[in-house]
Amino acid sequence: MGLENLQSLVGVAFVLAACWAVSENRRRFPWKLAVGAIGVQAVLVLLLFGVPPVRQALLGVGGLVDGLASSTQAGVAFVFGFLAGTPNQPYALTDPGSLFVFAFRVLPVILVVCALAALLWHWKILVWVTRAFGVVFERTMGLRGPPALATAATVFMGQVEGPIFIRSYLPSLSRSELFMLIAVGMACVSGSTMVAYATILKDVLPNAAAHVLTASIVSAPAGVLLARIIIPRDEAIEQAQTYDPAAAKKYDSSIDALIKGTTDGLQIMLNVGATLIVFVALTAMVNKILGGFGDVAGAPLSVERGLGILFSPLAWAIGVPWNDAPAAGSLLGVKLVLTEFTAFIKLGQIPVAAMDPRSRVLMTYALCGFANVASVGINLAGFSVLAPERRNEIVGMVWKAMMAGFLATCLTASVVGLLPAGLFANG
C-alpha cells in the first residue's frame, strides 16, 4: 500500500466523523456494522476486479453496453434520421464530435433499458437477481427482509422505484429503516442511468460500464452504514416480516411489460432532460451575474470555480492528487447542487491527458449516486404517494438523507482508493 492509498484513509475517517457529528444518538455508533460494511465493499471490489473469471465477465459489460447503445441508435435513427448522428450526413462535417447529441445518444438509452428491465422482471430474471442481493444485505448488514429487498431493488430500479416493491410495509417500518431506504436511494443509481453514464464516459475511461455498475452496487452498503450512523437502529420496534417480491410489480404479458416499461422510461427520460435544461440554464444565469464582477485572482467568478474551491479538500481526502483536486472538487459540487448527470457530462469532457487516470476512476465512483438537491424533491414527491401518512416525518429527514447519500459515494471512492491501483489496470 502506497502513500496515495493511505491518503484515502482520510476520506474514510472524514465521512464517518461527519455522519457521527449529525447523528441522532452519538453514543450508539455501529462499530461492527462500520467494519462489516467497509469490508463488504472492499471484498466486492476485489471479487469483481481481482478474480479472473469474474473480472472477465465484468469486462464483458462494456461490450453489452456498446451493443445496447448501438441497438438504441438504430431505433433513434429510424425515427429522427441523420439527427441521430448516423455516418451518412446531408452536409459536410467540419467537426465529427458534433454528431454526439445528448438528446439523441444518451436519453434514448434510458427508454430502452427501462423497457428491457420491465421485460426481465416479467420473466422473473430480475426478480431472482433482486432476491439474491436482498439475501446478501439481510445476512451481511443485519437488515430485515422487506428493507433488504427494497435496498436490493433500489440498486437496479432507482430511488423511488425500489421502495415500491414493499409499499404495503412502508407505514410499519421504523424511522431508521425509512431513513435508510431514502439514503440508499440517493447513494445508488438506477440500471437505466448506469448505461447512460457508461455511454458518456466510454471514450475517456477504459471499461467505464464495469466501473459504473460496480459503483452503484458497492455504494449500497455504504448508504446503509451511514444511514445507521445518523439514525441508529431501534431493534425494539423492528419485527420480522415475510414478503414476496414478485407480488409488488406484475405485468399481464411480455408485451404489457414492454409497453409499461417504455412508458415509465419516457417519464424518466423527460424528467432527466427537463431537469438538465433547467439546472444548466440556472447555472449559466448565475455565472453571467458573477461574471459582472470581473476577474478575481486572474479568473472570472463562476459556480463551478466556487464549488471547486469548496470541495477540493474532500476530493483530496478521497485520494485524488492535489493538482486534480480543484477540478474533482468542482465535479463533486456540480453533482450535489446540480445533478450527477451534469457532473458525468463534465467528467466526460475532460481530456484524457488533463486528468490523472486514478483521479478519473475515483471520481467515477464518487459521482455515481442520485444525491443532489433535485432528488430531495423527487423523494418528497415519491414517498408522499407511497407513504402519505409519514410525509411530515420524511420532510424532516430527507436533507440528512441527501447528505448520507452524497457521503456514501465518497466513502465508496475512498475504499476504492485504498485498494492497489493495479487492480483496475486496463479497466
Task: Describe the protein.
The chain has helices at residues 3-21, 31-50, 52-80, 102-105, 107-122, 125-141, 145-157, 161-164, 175-187, 191-201, 208-230, 254-291, 303-318, 325-337, 340-349, 357-367, 373-386, 391-418, and strands spanning 295-296, 299-300. The protein has 427 residues and is mainly α. The chain has one domain. A two-stranded antiparallel sheet has the order 1-2. Strand 1 (295-296) and strand 2 (299-300) form a beta hairpin. Helix 11 (208-230) crosses helix 16. The two termini are 20 Å apart. The mean pLDDT is 81.
Order of helices and strands: HHHHHHHHHHHHEEHHHHHH
Number of helical runs? 18
Helix content: over 70%
Please list the strands of the largest sheet in the order they lie side by side: 1-2
- What number of domains? 1
Distance between the termini: 20 Å
Q: Radius of gyration from the CA trace?
A: 21 Å
Q: Which ranges are low-confidence, i.e. pLDDT below 50, for 5 or more consecutive residues?
A: none
Structure classification: mainly alpha
Characteristics:
18 helices; mainly alpha; 427 residues; two-stranded antiparallel ribbon; globular; 70% helix; single chain
Describe the SSE topology.
Layout: H1 3-21, H2 31-50, H3 52-80, H4 102-105, H5 107-122, H6 125-141, H7 145-157, H8 161-164, H9 175-187, H10 191-201, H11 208-230, H12 254-291, E1 295-296, E2 299-300, H13 303-318, H14 325-337, H15 340-349, H16 357-367, H17 373-386, H18 391-418
Antiparallel strand pairs: 1-2
Helix pairs in contact: 1-11, 1-13, 1-18, 2-3, 2-11, 3-5, 5-10, 5-12, 6-7, 7-9, 9-11, 9-18, 10-11, 11-16, 11-18, 13-14, 13-18, 14-15, 14-16, 15-16, 16-18, 17-18
